[in-house]
């Protein structure tokens, strides 16, 4: 069985399917459920809803973009999930992409490695029950201390490029990668001394609409910093070049071949999917499945097939 399930935030599915996926993951004994955010729910709100509806699985919130929330707010969020949900939650942080940070939220993109290191230090301060200290050009003051007291801190960092991997290896409890090949996971693990988790999009007996769901979603990552580089190394260089030149997303999705998808996803028969997941597991990383849901509501068929 994979180490966990990632709540898939497919853009073409009803938002409340996220709860259904969480229920299915819990019912089949997956030990960890990851809860991110995109265009649907606030990650901490969704994580709390899942925590109160499940009993056993570890809840990991994120990756939460450090460019969109301040460290105190992030610490308050994960602490709130733990208290309101009845068990401590883990946290994952990421840089996100310029599209999300600048176009969706109107925030500034840049200094992502430095911003991440600063955020981790301040989040750990709050979760340890200590008071933060803030410095500005004209002031220095003691800032925030949580009334929730000390909360266990387990922080993963989403990392793809060399600099972010180095930073994560120095400051995080775990590194998480997405849309990478097993070889890329092995290379990354040789650079860091903390555990590694890898997200793998998976679908057992996918129908044609499932393939289209994956193509449409992955097309959005081609031009993004970090993702474009690792996908180029995975053999997607032509698509990345076209994406960064402004080719429409619909054209990019239509141009993806099954061979290209097979390099970074696990789609096919149960046996085919298990072979691919095993290749990731052999790297020593924890494998987190992102279930395809088009033609398989809640990912029920896929999660059931991979659970035993």
Explain how this protein is built.
The chain has helices at residues 17-27, 43-53, 71-85, 98-104, 112-127, 162-171, 182-189, 208-219, 227-244, 249-255, 258-262, 270-281, 300-306, and strands at 4-6, 32-35, 58-65, 90-94, 133-135, 140-142, 155-158, 174-178, 196-204, 265-268, 286-291. By secondary structure, it is of the alpha/beta class. The protein has an eight-stranded parallel β-barrel with strand order 1-2-3-4-7-8-9-11, surrounded by five helices. The chain is globular, with a radius of gyration of 19 Å. The model has no long low-confidence stretch (mean pLDDT 92).
Roughly what fraction of the amino acids lie in strands?
A: 15-25%
Largest sheet: 8 strands, parallel, barrel
Mean pLDDT: 92
Helix content: 40-55%
Number of helices: 13
Q: How are the strands of the biggest sheet laid out side by side?
A: 1-2-3-4-7-8-9-11
Shape summary: globular
Q: Indicate the radius of gyration in whole angstroms.
A: 19 Å
Query: H/E order of the elements?
Result: EHEHEHEHHEEEHEHEHHHHEHEH
List low-pLDDT spans. Answer: none
End-to-end distance: 6 Å
């Amino acid at each position: 069985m994979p180490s966990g399930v990632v709540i898939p935030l497919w853009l073409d599915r009803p938002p409340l399917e996220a709860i259904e996926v969480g229920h299915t993951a819990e019912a089949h004994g997956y030990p960890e459920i990851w809860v991110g955010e995109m265009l649907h729910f606030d990650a901490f709100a969704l994580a709390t809803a899942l925590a109160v509806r499940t009993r056993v699985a570890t809840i990991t919130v994120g990756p939460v973009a450090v460019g969109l929330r301040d460290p105190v707010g992030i610490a308050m969020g994960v602490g709130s999930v733990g208290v309101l949900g009845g068990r401590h939650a883990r946290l994952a942080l990421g840089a996100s992409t310029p599209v999300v940070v600048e176009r969706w939220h109107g925030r500034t993109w840049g200094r992502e490695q430095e911003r991440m290191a600063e955020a981790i230090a301040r989040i750990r301060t709050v979760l340890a029950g200590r008071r933060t200290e803030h410095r500005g050009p004209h002031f220095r003051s003691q800032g925030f201390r949580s009334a929730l007291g000390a909360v266990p801190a387990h922080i993963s960092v989403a990392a793809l490029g060399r600099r972010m991997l180095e930073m994560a290896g120095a400051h995080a409890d775990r590194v998480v990668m997405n849309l990478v090949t097993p070889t890329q996971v092995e290379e990354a693990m040789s650079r860091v001394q903390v555990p590694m988790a890898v997200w793998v999009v998976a679908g057992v007996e996918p129908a044609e609409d499932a393939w289209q769901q994956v193509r449409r979603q992955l097309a959005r990552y081609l031009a993004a910093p970090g993702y474009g580089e690792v996908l180029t190394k995975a053999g997607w260089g032509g698509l990345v070049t076209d994406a960064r030149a402004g080719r429409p997303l619909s054209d990019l999705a239509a141009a993806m071949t099954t061979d290209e998808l097979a390099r970074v996803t696990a789609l096919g028969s149960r046996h085919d999917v298990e072979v691919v997941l095993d290749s990731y597991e052999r790297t020593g990383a924890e494998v987190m499945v992102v279930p395809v849901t088009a033609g398989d509501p809640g990912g029920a068929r896929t999660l059931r097939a991979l659970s035993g």
